[in-house]
Amino acid sequence: MTYTIAEALRKNFLGHSPVWYKMTILGFLILNPILVLMFGPFIAGWVLVMEFIFTLAMALKCYPLQPGGLLAIEAIIIGMATPAMVYHETEANFPVIMLLMFMVAGIYFLREMLLYTFTKILLGVRSKILLSLMFCCAAAFLSAFLDALTVTAVIITVASGFYGAYHRVALGKHFDDSHDLEQDDEVIELHRADLQQFRKFLRNLMMHGAVGTALGGVATLVGEPQNLLIGEIMDWEFLTFFLKMAPISMPVLVVGLLTCVSLEYFKIFGYGAPLADKVRVVLEDYDREMTDKRTKEERAAIGVQGIVAIVLVFALGFHLAQPGIIGLLIIVLATAFNGITEEHRIGHAFEEALPFTALLVVFFTIVAVIDNQGLFSPVIDWVLTYEGKVRTVLFYCANGLLSMISDNVFVATVYIKEVQELFETGAITRDEFDALAIAINTGTNIPSVATPNGQAAFLFLLTSALAPVIRLSYGRMVYMALPYTITMSITGVMALWYLTEI
User: What is the C-alpha separation between 434 and 417, in angstroms, rounded?
Assistant: First the structure.
C-alpha cells in the first residue's frame, strides 16, 4: 500500500497510539498558545497541568514522555518557563535523577536473589490477607530507612519475575525460553482465565506495596526527599524527626494496615484476588526446576547478591552517601563478583530506569511552569489567612491536594520556605513553626497516594514495563488507591487536630 508523505507523517506521529489520542494531543498543542494570548499564562498554566496529567492517565496508550515532552517544549517556546528554570528544577532534584539511573540498575543485578527469596515467601504463605499485609509492612519498614523508589524497584523486579515464569507456561513454553511479556495472542486457552486472575493478584500486591512505601516514608528523616529538606530547615535529627511525626505517622500506619486487611477480606476496589491453584502449581514447578538446574556458580551468585543487598540496606539505612552513589556501588559489587563484564549485559540494567528519568525531567518542566506562573500562590495565600489548629489542618489539606496534582517534593519545598519566612519575620512562634512543618510533611506524604503523579514511586510503577502487562493503568491506580487515600487522609487530619500541640 502506497502512502503520501503527509499520510506517512500522520501514521508516524505518536506511533501506534489511537487516532483520537493523536488528535487530542494536537488539539492541546494548538489550544495552549491561544489560551496564553486570550486568558494569560496563569489560566494556560493550569490547563497545561491538566493536559500533562491526561498524558499520564493515558500511559497505556502512549508512553507519557513523547506527548508530555511536546507539551513541555511548547510551554518553553511560548514563554511559560525558560530552559534555565527547567535546569534549576532538574539540578535541585539531581539526587533523584542519580537514584533512578544507578539504584534501579543496581536492583536489576540482585533480581535472582530477590526472586528466590520472594518465591519462597509467596509459596510458603497461602493466606492472601497475610501475604498482602506482609508486602505492605515490608514496604513500609524498608521505606522508613531506605527510599520509596528503591523499594518500588524491588517489588517491580519480584512481580516481573513471577509474571514472567507463569506467562511462559501460559504460552506453552519452558521456563528458560525467551518470550515477550506483552504478547498474549498465543496464550493457551486453558490458561487464559488463570492469567487474568494472576494479573489481578499481582496488581493487588503491587498496590499494597506502593502504599506501604508512603506509610513508611512519612515517618523518618530519610524516608522521602522532602523529609530531608524539612528536617534540615527545622534542625531535626533522625530521632527528633521521628518523634515529631509519630503522633500522625503511627496512627496512619495502623489505619493503613487495617485498610489493607479490610480490602482483601471484603474483596472490594479490585482487591481480594487469590493465587489460583494452577498458578501456584506452575510457580512451585518453576521453583523446583530452577533449584534442580542451579549450578554452583549460580548459587554463589545468589549468595553474593544477598551480601550486596545487606550492604545496600546498611549503606542506605545509615545514609553513608547519596542513594544514587550507593546504587553505583551496588552495580560495581554485583557485577564484579558475579562475572558480568560485558557491556551489553550491563546495558540491559538501565533500560527500565532511563525512560522514566527522561520523563521526570519533562515533569520538572511542568513544575517550572507551576513555579514561574505562581499557580499555587492563591492557595498558599488563602491558607495563611487562618490561624491556630484550623491553619495547621488547612496546611495539611492544601499540601495534600496540590501534591495530588504536582510533585510532593516541590509542594513541600514551596510551603516550608513560606513558613520559614513567616518564622524569621516573627509572624509565627516556634511552636507554630513546628506544627506547620509537621502538617507540610504529612500532607505531602499521605494524601498524595491518591494519584500516580503525587509520588515519584507511584509514577515509576505506572510507567514501568510491568504496568502494561498486569494492566495497571492510571485510572485503575487511582481507583485502587482511593480507599487508602480516604482512610489515611482522614486519620492524618484527626491526628493533627487531636494529637498535636499548637
Answer: 13
